Amino acid sequence: MNRFDLHMHSCYSSDGQFTPKELIEIAQKKGLKTIALSDHDCISGVKEMIRLGNEVGIEVIPAIECSTSIGYTDVHLLGYGIDLDNDYFQNLLEKTQVKSRNAFSTRCDRLRAKYGVEIDEEAILKEANGKNPWFVMCTHMFNDPRYQAIPDFKDYIPGGKRSDPAPVNFFWDKCQYGSDLFVYVPMPDFLESVQKIHEAGGLAIVAHPFTTFYKNDEMLKILLESGVDGIEAYSNYHTPEQNVYYENLAKEHHLLITCGSDFHGEKKPSIQMGEYGLEKDGSVWLERFKEKLKAAR
């Protein structure tokens, strides 16, 4: 059985911890034979990761996790096997980073207005030191004794049922479209991003779809007509029922099935590389994925 993990992040991501070298060392300890580095809107560490993997006999598939939008809904899109010299993907981070930073300031304003919390943006940005400031801000906010009695925070304070990782869960639970904390960030269009991945010789796979497409006919129609190649059916963000649902959906529509931990390190401490809720052998899915990847190239 080929143990694999097709979704992880390095220090080149705004929320990743480990260097490519450290990721390879972790993959060795986990007994993984095939992995993919899929940093957020960034391919800076991929060539280094491939070289290091080759040195120890670990196959590293080039990848990127693209921030995209379907209307007001954020959808993360994985691009596998893309040309690493492609101008669009080399410059993607610069385009999305500015929008994300501006959105952070607006989100702080919304949090202050709704909950009366004090947020020192300048201090938060300094402490984040170029990484995603949302994690730093949420950690301070949920650990502050002054705010732990706020009803909306009870699940995210230390020990709460959604506290690991609190910044990620709070964002997905409380800050999506329809909430008064929602901030529209005009990320690249989902359909255009699928096309960009294909133009760069890659495969487009929807990352951790969790509730976005789950039994949602309107969104499913967009997904199935978009030209995507597959779905990351098994993910740490899915319930067991969602894992099975997306596996069956992919099989029904002849889409590729991938599995990924979304390993980040300290920002998502409960997530371990190589673990994503799959309790059976997924080698057949991996081989089909690699065959399609070879054909795309």
Features:
297 residues; alpha/beta; TIM Barrel; 2 domains; seven-stranded mixed beta sheet
Question: What does it look like?
Answer:
This protein has 297 residues and is α/β, with parallel strands linked by helices. It folds into two domains: 4-95 and 189-296, TIM Barrel (Alpha-Beta Barrel); 100-174. It is 42% helix and 15% strand. It has helices at 20-30, 46-56, 87-90, 92-115, 121-128, 133-143, 166-174, 190-199, 217-225, 240-252, 283-296; strands at 4-8, 34-37, 59-70, 73-80, 203-206, 230-235, 256-260. Strands 1-2-3-4-5-6-7 form a seven-stranded mixed sheet. A hairpin with a 2-residue loop joins strand 3 and strand 4. The longest helix has 24 residues, at 92-115. The chain is globular and about 55 Å long. The mean pLDDT is 96.
Low-confidence stretches: none
Could you give me the name of the CATH homologous superfamily of the largest domain? Answer: Metal-dependent hydrolases
How can the largest sheet be summarized? Answer: 7 strands, mixed
CATH class descriptor name of the largest domain: Alpha Beta
SSE layout and pairing:
Blueprint: E1 4-8, H1 20-30, E2 34-37, H2 46-56, E3 59-70, E4 73-80, H3 87-90, H4 92-115, H5 121-128, H6 133-143, H7 166-174, H8 190-199, E5 203-206, H9 217-225, E6 230-235, H10 240-252, E7 256-260, H11 283-296
Parallel strand pairs: 1-2, 2-3, 5-6, 6-7
Antiparallel strand pairs: 3-4, 4-5
